[in-house]
């Protein structure tokens, strides 16, 4: 390798992320799914906070918003029980499965279009410091409260 060439890191593949925004103001996005997965694994909101790197308050707000968005709770919380805790409800498990199904179908249907877009990408593109700074300056994703509560 000559002195003026930089070693290139492998680039991530172009990916498709699905965000569902419901008519009642609720939402289900990759961020909410990460919290759900962490609650499922850690069995607590505090554990999910630690696992995701989000504040406890942010995780709690996400859980609260999810539970209010649907007629059935997505995550059952058990405050006051020794050690407290939280777990996915059967409806929460079904919601995750439905989201995964939507994601699989969207990826399958969009595969050729994504490949065409990816082929048109500039291989020498590098994010500018100002792009990265503005991305990092975005506030934490906090679910909006519905008007009715």
UniProtKB/TrEMBL annotation:
<protein>
    <submittedName>
        <fullName>ModE family transcriptional regulator</fullName>
    </submittedName>
</protein>
<dbReference type="InterPro" id="IPR036390">
    <property type="entry name" value="WH_DNA-bd_sf"/>
</dbReference>
<dbReference type="InterPro" id="IPR036388">
    <property type="entry name" value="WH-like_DNA-bd_sf"/>
</dbReference>
<dbReference type="InterPro" id="IPR051815">
    <property type="entry name" value="Molybdate_resp_trans_reg"/>
</dbReference>
<feature type="region of interest" description="Disordered">
    <location>
        <begin position="128"/>
        <end position="149"/>
    </location>
</feature>
């Amino acid at each position: 390798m000559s002195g003026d060439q930089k070693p290139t890191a492998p680039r991530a593949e172009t990916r498709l992320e699905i965000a569902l925004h419901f008519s009642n103001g609720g939402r289900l996005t990759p961020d909410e799914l990460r919290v759900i997965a962490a609650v499922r694994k850690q069995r607590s909101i505090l554990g999910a906070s630690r696992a995701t790197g989000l504040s406890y308050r942010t995780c709690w707000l996400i859980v609260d918003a999810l539970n209010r968005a649907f007629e059935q709770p997505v995550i059952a919380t058990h405050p006051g029980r020794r050690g407290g805790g939280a777990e996915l409800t059967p409806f929460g498990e079904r919601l995750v499965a439905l989201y995964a199904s939507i994601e699989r179908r969207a990826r399958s249907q969009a595969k050729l279009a994504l490949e065409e877009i990816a082929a048109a990408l500039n291989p020498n593109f590098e994010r500018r410091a100002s792009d990265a700074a503005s991305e990092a300056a975005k506030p934490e994703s906090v679910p909006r409260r519905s008007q009715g509560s």
